[in-house]
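Forum > Structural Biology > Help requests

Title: Can anyone predict the 3D structure of Helix-turn-helix domain-containing protein?

Hi all, first post here. I have the sequence for Helix-turn-helix domain-containing protein but no way to get a structure on my laptop. I'd be grateful if someone could post the structure tokens.
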Amino acid sequence: MTAEQIRHARDLLTRPENTVSSIARLLGVSRSTIYTYVPELATGPAVGQPTVRAELEAGS
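Reply #1:
Sure, ran it for you. Structure tokens for Helix-turn-helix domain-containing protein below:
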């Protein structure tokens, strides 16, 4: 994935209506590619930590 595609995927993930599958289809890559290039999706939040989506929405 290009840097632009990664930024686009992260932006799309901030919107609750989007799924990893729909973003992968839109970008023409597999779900596993999304998880490879956006590794924070693969690890769940630690107890008491915000979700990836909440972090992305906050701009972290």
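The mean pLDDT is 80. The chain is about 55% helix and 0% strand.
Shout if anything looks off.
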